[in-house]
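[Q] Does anyone have a clean structure-token version of this?
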Amino acid sequence: MFEEPMNFLFFIPPILFVVIFITVIVSIVKSSKKAKESYERRVNKIQMTQGANIEKYYQMLTTDPELVKRRKQSIHNGKIIGIGFLLLFASFFTGLFFIGIPIFIVCIVYTAKHGNAYSSYYKQHIIGVALKDYDDNLSYFPTEGISSQEYNYAHFESYDRYHSEDLIKGDLDGLPFVISDVHTEDRREDSDGDTYYVTLFHGPVAILTLEKPTNIQVSIIDNTIHLGTGDTYLEMDNPEFEEHYDVYTDDKVKAMRFLTPSVTNKILDLRKSYDLHFEIKLLDQLVYFRFEIGELFVPNASDTRKEAMDIALYFEILNGIKDVMKEINNSIEFLKK
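[A] Here you go.
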């Protein structure tokens, strides 16, 4: 009499598992498609200016015997983690926790033991060599970064957690220069009181030191980041520039003389070249550049072409900083007159 309802209840966990699994897969596919479209637009632009360098970096990534060996190990580790996760996920719906959890832990321990081999070699022997080839005045320190004190000086945003790595420092066209990946996060709590973190900013941050103080503060804030500032808003004469940036300053007269058409046009050129969202702050003798594009020196063992693209984009960002700084230096000289 009760056998049919009991049989139906037996199938509920597997059905739920299939529905949730399909939903997750569809969500991942949609997100991946959107990211791929954005990436392809940027790739087309990079190919136009950095085609030869992309091929050079690709050759470096595919012909280094040790890197190739470690790449294969990294891909193998990814498959192991994937299998472990699926088994763990399935165990929640079958009640076989005593099997799924230990297997998942073994997968984590195994991959953790071999997980950093590819990343460390990639950064030291690929990024380090590529950087020296780009500019011998710059040095690369993968595990170091811009200090939180240096970052906080620009008053970008309040955060609860800060991390920085992939530090590059030296001289950039004669000016003391540092750039590194920065990741800031805000601490949140859900309705159950559980803590989680939300990314506020993630991308390269560069700091250049001018030869002399300028006695002015100017913040050029990207509208898409829109973190604001406490200074006075400055309305610009350039409609296109106004469309993408808000400008704040402690001295409107000096700021207008500083933000010459050459400066604003060069900033727009860099933005449009690779669809980059970034902002600039001039704080007396320091100039900050902050790019909201995520981390670029991330090894991607399954996509060597993307690794080469990211390296090329990073050096194009450095070229862009150089171009903007040339105009900034010219406007500062004009400001002194």
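[Q] Thanks! Anything notable?
[A] The longest strand covers residues 175-189.
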